[in-house]
Amino acid sequence: MNFLDDIKWNSDGLVPAIAQDAASGRVLMVAWMNAQALQLTVTENRAVYWSRSRQKIWRKGEESGHTQMIKELRLDCDGDVIVMQVEQFGGIACHTGRTSCFYRVLIDGEWQPVDSVAKDPKDIYL
Q: Domain extents for the chain?
């Protein structure tokens, strides 16, 4: 039996993948994987996702250079969520130029940005 057979894929053939910084434990981002993306992630030892907007395989960092190298992969008890312990190169996981995609906190009923931009996205995505 192949490890891909243990995944409970959703109706679109996808599974959510949470990227967590292996050193700090901070959640960096959540993206989606199909079977091909997960197989490539294991083979290449780097985060490879399925882009729902572009409908294609997306190697994290292919445009920005901010790659995620895999330290460990975990599957939850239900088999429908993957958590990846990663080393985030370049210190930026979010397309907004921030360390994490989770940079807003609910304060007084409004989502407030609390993390600064590490690098202007215009300087990342040329």
A: 3-118
Q: How far apart are CA 126 and CA 111, in angstroms?
A: 29
Token representation of residue 105 = 């906190």
How many alpha carbons fall within 13 Å on the CB side of residue 36?
A: 7
pLDDT 10s digits, 20-38:
999 999 999 999 999 999 9
Compute the distance between CA of residue 9 and CA of residue 65 in angstroms, rounded to an integer: 29
User: Sheet of 27-33: strands edge to edge?
Assistant: 27-33, 15-21, 82-88, 68-75
As a whole number of angstroms, the distance between CA 28 and CA 7 comes to 22
Global pTM reads 0.92
What fold does the segment set 3-118 form as a domain? Ubiquitin-like (UB roll) (3.10.20)
Condensed to tens digits (0 to 9), the pLDDT of residues 59-100 reads 999 999 999 999 999 999 999 999 999 999 999 999 999 999
